[in-house]
Each structure stands twice: as structure tokens, then as C-alpha cells.
Write a structure and sequence with these properties.
globular, Rossmann fold, 6-stranded antiparallel sheet, 359 residues, alpha/beta, 5-stranded parallel sheet, Glutathione S-transferase Yfyf (Class Pi), Chain A, domain 2
């Protein structure tokens, strides 16, 4: 799968801009603030139905405009895919594939496999558990439609249960039978979600460790630890045990929406005990492991987006990352950078075809 061309209209800081891409390496270069990352983000948007950096659709419209359009032409072997994403303020976003609009955006997930490595990935370390759950869910959902649907259904029921708890508090009433209906549904969807998350972590750990050692040359032990409240107990029982607590809090305090993923170095949280270099290596290794998993599951080579890697990584890590991309079986790659000469010097050494776009 590769992106042949893209047109951006009123997307973030672009009024109208078109690109015809190389099938292997594409570099978007220019000063800070000219929109390099926005080009990569538009590609991500066509693949994942939303922005990587700002999922609030209305905030992706260029200031002073009322709409945006992203128009992309993809090729998968000899098969063509024409994807259009459009949005007008006050209306619903529309995504069309080969002229047909999706009823549900979830149907598009996995159609265009893609992985991004960005400075924003540091949120996985420093932010709360929701960010790490979204990482797991994003990777699994790209190749497992049943998982994605269970996830959507779980959060729909969760929202309904929370609304009922608020209703009870407001009206000073309580009905356990009504809650039991939601408890059973939550448990029904939670079990396969937990099982697939657990299997995903088991699969990604050895790949992740291999990439970390290659990038860092470090001897420290790194690990991922998946934590879930339903690891040892049925969710239905947990919901019953925490009924009084939920009644006071007016929301559901237990469930797979509380799961977390711990990032460890030598058995300790990397957020507190990892150096800046170790944290960068950790995140790159994690994203490259994601690439391998998506590639294996989809049986297609994902598009790889490398956002601002030269300014955010030291020379040694950049060299190793580009060397891995050159030696291993990667497909189409997009790189954003601020220095034309530096970028050209690096991509020349890959012996791959490339294009450089100077914004």
C-alpha cells in the first residue's frame, strides 16, 4: 500500500496544496510552522479517520475557513483506493472510499495500515492510562473488526450505566435491577477485550525488546506490564462489590476502561527512572514493534510516518533508525524535517528512490 497523491484544501494552515509522492521515501522539509507535520497528519487522517494530534475535527479547519477536504489516491499492488475526508462546520464529517460514504467510520479502520513515530508519542509515558489504552486499542483494531465493535459497544453501555447512576442521584432513587442489565452487558463485552489485549502484549513484548536493543545498544531490561481489574475476578462480581462506591461517585469505577500498561526499565517505571535517551529509545522500539505487528496481522506493509525525528533524536539514534528502515522490509516512508541538506544526505544513503518537498 502506498499513497500516490494527496490534495489538502483548508486543512490546518494549507489553503490548497497538492503532492505527488514517491513510492518509497518522501521528505517534507521547511522551517517550523510551515505545515510539515500537517502533511503527515493529513495522511494519518485518511488512514485512521481522525487527526493524530488533534482529534477534535472542527479544530483541523484552517482559521477563517468553514470546511476542509483531504483527497488521497492510494495503490495496493494494482488496486486503486480513492479516499476523501471532508468536513463543514456544523455538519458531520464525511469519509468516502471509492465514491461511497461510510455509515460508520469504524468500517474504514484497517483499510490503510499506517504507523506514525512522533515527538507526541511521549504522551504514552507522561500522560494517564487512557493514552496507553488507546495505543493498545488502536493497534488491535487495525486488524480485528470484532474487537473494535466490542470496544464501541462496551463504551456505549458504560455511558448508559453512568447516565443511570447520575439519574439515580439526581432523583434520589435507586434500582439495582436496572443496573444489573448493564452489568451483564459490560461483562459480556469486557471479557474478549481483556483477552485480546493480554494476547497482544504477549506478542509485542519480544519484538519490542529486540528493537530496543538494536536502537539503544543498552544492557538494561525493558518490559511492558498489562494491568486489569478483571485479571483475577469476573467484572459482574466487581460491579456488584463496588455498587455503593459507584452510587456515591455517580460513575462506574471498575472495568476494562480502567486498564493500564506499565512501561518498565530494570523493573522500575521508565517515567521516573529512565533517562531522556532511554525513554526515546523505548518509544521508538514500541512503535517499530507496532509496525511489525500491524504488518503481520494485515499481511500488508504499513505506511510509516516519521515526524520531526532529526530535531528530537540524537544523531546515533537517527542513524540506527534510518539504517533499520533501509535494511528491513519497509514500504513507503514519509519524513518531516527542518533542514534540506541534512535530510537529503540521510536519504541518499538508503539507496532508495525519494522525493523532497520544500515547503
Amino acid at each position: 500500500m502506498h499513497l500516490g497523491s494527496i490534495q489538502l484544501i483548508n486543512y490546518k494552515n494549507f489553503t490548497a496544496k497538492s503532492f505527488d509522492f514517491d513510492a518509497k521515501i518522501n521528505c517534507i522539509v521547511g522551517n517550523n510552522g510551515v505545515g510539515k507535520t500537517n502533511v503527515l497528519d493529513a495522511i494519518y487522517h485518511l488512514s485512521q479517520t481522525k487527526s493524530y494530534f488533534n482529534p477534535i475535527t472542527s479544530q483541523n479547519v484552517k482559521h477563517g475557513e468553514e470546511f476542509f477536504v483531504i483527497d488521497g489516491n492510494f495503490t495496493d499492488n494494482d488496486y486503486k483506493e480513492h479516499i476523501i475526508c471532508s468536513y463543514k462546520k456544523g455538519q458531520k464529517k464525511i469519509i468516502k472510499r471509492n465514491g461511497k460514504a461510510y455509515e460508520r467510520f469504524s468500517e474504514h479502520i484497517g483499510s490503510i495500515p499506517l504507523v506514525i513515530i512522533s515527538p507526541a508519542d511521549r504522551d504514552l509515558i507522561v500522560e494517564g492510562s487512557e493514552t496507553r489504552r488507546k495505543f493498545m486499542d488502536h493497534v488491535i483494531s487495525q486488524s480485528d473488526k470484532a474487537y473494535l465493535q466490542d470496544l464501541i459497544n462496551y463504551h456505549k453501555v458504560l455511558s448508559q450505566r453512568n447516565a443511570l447512576l447520575k439519574y439515580f442521584a439526581k432523583n434520589r432513587t435507586f434500582d439495582t435491577d436496572s443496573l444489573d442489565v448493564y452489568n451483564k452487558q459490560l461483562s459480556q463485552f469486557a471479557t474478549p477485550i481483556y483477552t485480546k489485549r493480554k494476547h497482544f502484549i504477549e506478542k509485542i513484548i519480544p519484538i519490542f525488546r529486540k528493537h530496543y536493543q538494536t536502537i539503544s545498544n543498552g544492557y538494561e531490561t525493558i518490559d511492558l506490564s498489562y494491568k486489569s481489574q478483571i485479571q483475577h475476578e469476573n467484572l459482574t462480581d466487581l460491579l456488584v462489590q463496588n455498587l455503593n462506591k459507584d452510587r456515591v461517585l455517580q460513575y462506574t469505577s471498575v472495568g476494562i476502561h480502567r486498564d493500564d500498561l506499565s512501561f518498565l526499565i530494570d523493573g522500575h517505571p521508565i517515567k521516573k527512572f529512565g533517562s531522556q535517551g532511554q525513554q526515546k529509545s523505548f518509544l521508538i522500539a514500541l512503535k517499530l514493534a507496532q509496525f511489525d505487528i500491524v504488518k503481520k496481522q494485515s499481511k500488508r506493509i504499513p505506511i510509516l510516518l516519521l515526524d520531526d525525528i532529526f530535531d528530537k533524536l540524537d544523531d546515533e539514534r537517527v542513524t540506527k533508525l534510518i539504517d533499520m528502515v533501509h535494511k528491513e522490509h519497509f514500504g513507503q516512508i514519509f519524513i518531516s524535517d527542518t533542514h534540506y541538506e541534512r535530510t537529503e544526505e540521510v536519504v541518499k544513503n538508503t539507496n532508495q528512490t525519494y522525493k523532497i518537498f520544500n515547503l
